[in-house]
Amino acid sequence: MPENKLEPSISIEHAAYLKSKKLYHWKVLGTQIILLIGFVVLWEIAGRMGWIDPFITSQPSRIWKTLVNLHNEGTLYYHIGITVLETVVGFVSGTIIGTLFAIYLWWSDFAAEVLDPYLVILNALPKIALGPILIVWIGNGSTAIIAMALLISLVVTILGVYSGFSQVDSDMIKLLKTFGATKVQILQKAILPASVPTIISALKINVGLSWVGVIVGEFLVSKAGLGYLIVYGGQVFKLDLVMTSVIILAIAAAVMYKAVVLLEQLFLKWR
Questions:
Q1: Which CATH class for the 61-270 domain?
Q2: What is the rounded distance in angstroms from the CA atom of residue 154 to the CA atom of residue 243?
Q3: Which are the contacts of 95, defined by CB distance < 8 A and separation ≥ 6?
Q4: How far apart are CA 55 and CA 225, in angstroms?
Q5: Which of 34, 39, 102, 246 might form a disulfide with 161, Cβ 3.0–4.6 angstroms?
Q6: Exposure of 158 by Cβ count < 10 A (0-12 exposed, 13-18 middle, 19+ buried)?
């Protein structure tokens, strides 16, 4: 006799719901694409018709020509690579160091109370103002740029992740203590798993902050990178180069943010 196999089945209503959700997703994506294409087309038409000054605002066709020229010169991927590398290093180091520091604050209530006002003040302090000081301390190079990205994202990560640790269900922690769990076990079994959404949120925020830090650093000291191209283009009035660099930055930031979203989906499944 043939073996009976259990086949998963869903109700008609649930199937209709899933279909409507998928349709809604495609509607949102389609609308986003249409808006983007419409904006690019309108931008091009406005430049050609003289509604805007293409020398100041550039236009898609001029940006494309600039991209092709940079590609032919062999400098496009060099500048992109430098900026992306500096951003990724600052992003990863800021997230790791910030999370470890938040764990230390959770571990020591005394340290948390002592350092709390200093962290608040550091968070309110405009980090960009420290750029010239970092250059003097660290030197003129990529290290200072990465330090700027790290400085901008670090305090936000510490405060955000520590706040997530503090909001973990206290009853769950008490239950673990009742069963004799150590502080390390509480951290492993309760605090970190429950704080995954908070850590992911910190990652999302750090994407933008890391890009800001790197570009500001490149404005100050870099001789290569997208920030350098923006500064150079502004100095010699090559505004097509400026707009091209800005568009590349937007695309790179969007790709990096999407990578964090995919990471979030993997972690939530694990959790």
A1: mainly alpha
A2: 29
A3: 153, 157, 199, 202, 203, 206
A4: 23
A5: 102
A6: buried
Structural tokens at position 245: 């660099």
Spatial CB neighbours of 112, under 8 Å, sequence gap ≥ 6: 105, 106, 162
Structure tokens at 118: 């200093």
Give the C-alpha distances (Å, rounded to integers) separating 261 from 109, 266, 268. Answer: 32, 9, 11
Q: What is the CA radius of gyration of the chain?
A: 24
Helix residue spans in 108-225 (DSSP H): 109-124, 131-138, 142-166, 170-178, 183-186, 192-194, 196-221
Written as six digits, the tokens of 151 are 């400085």
* Domain spans, the chain: 12-52, 61-270
Cα 72 to Cα 64: distance, rounded to the nearest angstrom: 12
Q: What tokens appear for 12 in the block?
A: 């008609």
- pLDDT tens digit sequence for 88-114: 888 888 888 888 888 888 888 888 888
What are the pLDDT digits (tens) for 35-64? 999 998 998 898 888 888 888 888 888 889
Label residue 6 by pLDDT band (50, 70, 90). very low
Contacts of 51 (CB under 8 A, 6+ apart): 45
